[in-house]
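This week, work through this protein record:
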Amino acid sequence: MSVVLRSGLLAASLAASECAVVITTGNLNAFVVFGFTSGEKLLTISGADVSVNPAHPRPCASAGGFSGGKLVSTRVVLSSQGDAWVGRSMATADGDLAFTLRSAGVSSGRRLVNGTFSGHAVSVATRATKPSGVRIVFDSLSAKTIDGDGDAASQVASGNIAGSITFVDARGNVATCDWVQWTMQPLPPG
């Protein structure tokens, strides 16, 4: 399979996109396991060409020489709104990511969250990382399944997102994934 992507098309797609994760049921008390608090967070989303998950043995496929890794660390602001946690990109430079998390129950000991994503997030510099130039773009037409759990003591939540997800490196090379992993934690100081 070959993928041809014109930079104008990519720019138009990124400019027109917005991101929303919508989850169907729940209450904030169900999120105690995640240790969520309002404020600035570091959201990291990563993909791989091979995984040990039997449902997704080859989660990502690249066209061309992909550089910078299938990893995006971006800054978001998380706040509680009603029975949901809502996150948005901290600044325009971080993308236009927005998500809403509501509890959808528990399965096999993991908190389930279902929703859809659209839009993009840009990998930004933190104290621990340099900007890679990699962006992640969520297909707004396909449903995503999000699961996860967390550690209230360390305020770190992590899980998986299954659906149509695209990483684009600084040169415009594309990696398409059907399964990625996420973590969210307080934004490191500095």
Summary: Confidence is low (pLDDT under 50) at residues 1-26. Helices lie at 7-16. The CA atoms of residues 35 and 152 lie 4 Å apart. The chain has one domain: 7-186.
